[in-house]
Amino acid sequence: MEHQVTVVTREGCSACVKAEQDVERICGEMGVEWSTLDVDSDPEWRAEYGDRVPVILVNGEEHGYWAVEEDRLRAALRPWRVSNS
C-alpha cells in the first residue's frame, strides 16, 4: 500500500508553511506523495479542522496537528514488511 499525506492548511498561517516544508522534505526523502488542502475551502473541513491547522492526514486519517512530529511521521510512512518466519 502506498501512503498519501495531506497537510490541511490555511492561508496566512505560518505554522502551516512550516508543516508543509517539513512534510515536503520528509515525503521527498521517503518517496511518498503529499498534497495540501485549504481548510477554508469547505465548511465541513473548517468545522472539523479549523481550530487545529495545520493538520497532518496520513491515508485520510488524522495523524497530528499544529506541528509535524518527524520521527512519528516517518514511522507511519515506512512500508509494511511481511515476515516469512
Can you tag this structure with a few keywords?
single chain; 85 residues; alpha+beta; Glutaredoxin; 4 strands; 25% strand; Glutaredoxin-like; Thioredoxin-like_sf
Describe this structure in words.
The chain has a single domain (7-68), classed as Glutaredoxin, CATH 3.40.30. It contains 3 helices and 4 strands. It has helices at 14-30, 43-49, 70-77, and strands at residues 4-9, 33-38, 55-58, 61-65. It is globular, with a radius of gyration of 14 Å.
Short description:
With 85 residues, the chain is an alpha+beta fold.
Architecture blueprint of SSEs:
Layout (H helix, E strand, L loop, with lengths): L3 E6 L4 H17 L2 E6 L4 H7 L5 E4 L2 E5 L4 H8 L8
Helix pairs in contact: 1-3
CATH topology grouping = Glutaredoxin
Q: What fraction, in percent, of the residue positions are helical? A: 25-40%
SSE order, as H and E? EHEHEEH
Q: Give the termini separation.
A: 21 Å
> Mind telling me the CATH class?
Alpha Beta
Rough outline: globular
The biggest sheet amounts to: 4 strands, mixed
The assigned structural class equals alpha+beta
Q: Overall mean pLDDT score?
A: 92
Q: DSSP strand (E) fraction?
A: 15-25%
Number of domain modules: 1
